[in-house]
Amino acid sequence: MQYAPAGVNNTITMHVSVILSTYNRAKYLELSLLGYMRQTHKDFEVVIADDGSTDGTKALIERYQKLASFPIRHAWQENKGYRRAKILNEAIKLASHDYLIFSDGDCIPKGDFIEAHVRNCQEGYFLGGGHVRLTKDYSADLTPEAVGQGLYEQTLAPEHLWNLRLKQWKNLFYTLVGKKRRPKFIGLNISVDRRSVFEINGFDENYEGWGQEDSDLRERLKRRGLRPRSILTQAIVFHLYHEPHSTKAQRPNLAYSRRSDIPIRCVNGLEK
């Protein structure tokens, strides 16, 4: 991909594919899509990585494909358990553009979310943004009309920004000292160029069940030579409430992620 030269605004020149993972959360996905309809950066598409939804998600996507000002693509696979890594790879294959932003369908982006990623992208780096957790009651009561008016952004309190700044300083320190498995970017707010993702063969589909597929991608990008950069206070999503996953569910994946012979290019990825 072509990055803008120094002094030229990337937001003028860059086209972006936003990849959203989802499963049976049509209500939340609608709120997320409405957030993307508010973006200041207009040159993007959304690719939905659907891990087997049966709750009306398909009909919702078809409706918004007609309503939205940006293209929406839909990658779907049959529900055979939690296979997020596999469906993300299918979504990557559908993506049209050379810069990828990964988020989740239960996250509503701040109005300048894409702009912040594009403004900060730089060759040789991948980016991790920040998130604000919305409460159970607020998430249940949030309406499409309120999202369209941007009212959810009012939940971004000074203490949230302070916590994000603190994490950003920690991440800078971890990067400078080369701390292993840090900084801990999470999959609801990461961006990277498409070429680098293909060079490491995308997500490792051996991760089945919840957890660690994002951490694995991060570590292989680092081993490929890319440097992590935190933009926690600039690129923000608002994470709608859901019950937390059990930590027991990720134990098999955790052991696999900490093996000593992790290749830069995974075997079971975009290409088999």
Produce the secondary structure layout.
Layout: H1 10-13, E1 16-22, H2 26-36, E2 44-50, H3 57-67, E3 72-76, H4 84-94, E4 99-104, E5 107-109, H5 113-120, E6 125-133, H6 136-141, H7 144-148, H8 158-177, E7 190-193, H9 194-199, H10 213-224, E8 227-239, H11 251-257
- Mean pLDDT over all positions: 89
Provide the gyration radius in Å: 18 Å
Structural class: alpha/beta
How many individual domains?
1
The count of strands amounts to: 8
Largest sheet properties = 8 strands, mixed
Shape: globular
What CATH first level would be assigned?
Alpha Beta
Helix-strand pattern: HEHEHEHEEHEHHHEHHEH
What share of the residues lie within helices? 25-40%
Strands side by side in the biggest sheet: 3-2-1-4-7-6-8-5
| Portion in beta strands | 15-25%
Verbal overview:
The chain is α/β, with parallel strands linked by helices and 272 residues long. It has helices spanning 10-13, 26-36, 57-67, 84-94, 113-120, 136-141, 144-148, 158-177, 194-199, 213-224, 251-257, and strands at 16-22, 44-50, 72-76, 99-104, 107-109, 125-133, 190-193, 227-239. The protein has one domain (10-257): Spore Coat Polysaccharide Biosynthesis Protein SpsA, Chain A. An 8-stranded mixed beta sheet has the order 3-2-1-4-7-6-8-5, sandwiched between helices. Helix 2 (26-36) links the parallel strand 1 (16-22) and strand 2 (44-50). The model has no long low-confidence stretch (mean pLDDT 89).
